[in-house]
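DM from R.C. (forwarded with permission)

"hey, sorry to bug you on a friday — could you get me a structure for this? deadline for the figure draft is monday and I only need the backbone to look sensible"
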Amino acid sequence: MAFLGLLLLLALMIPIMGLVLDSPVGKALARRLEGPQAIPPNLAELARKVDLLEGEVDDLQRAVTTLQEENQFLQRLLEEQPGRSPLPKPKS
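My reply, with the result:
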């Protein structure tokens, strides 16, 4: 009887293992067991380019902020001068 139970358990474990190994959890476990993968060179190059672009965007953001502050300062200067129009009068 024990042999029959063991045989039945083994027969049922085959499809169960197939379902588990084919599931996303089984695939993730298999990838983890394979060990660390080397980063492909094109992906490393892309990461380097993204880092450079992020630095450029930060520099441009600082430049835009500076220009906005300068513009606000000049606008305040022009508004504070009474009796003077901000634009020169056209010559006729």
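R.C.: lifesaver. Helices lie at 2-22, 24-34, 41-80.
me: no worries. The chain has a mean pLDDT of 84.
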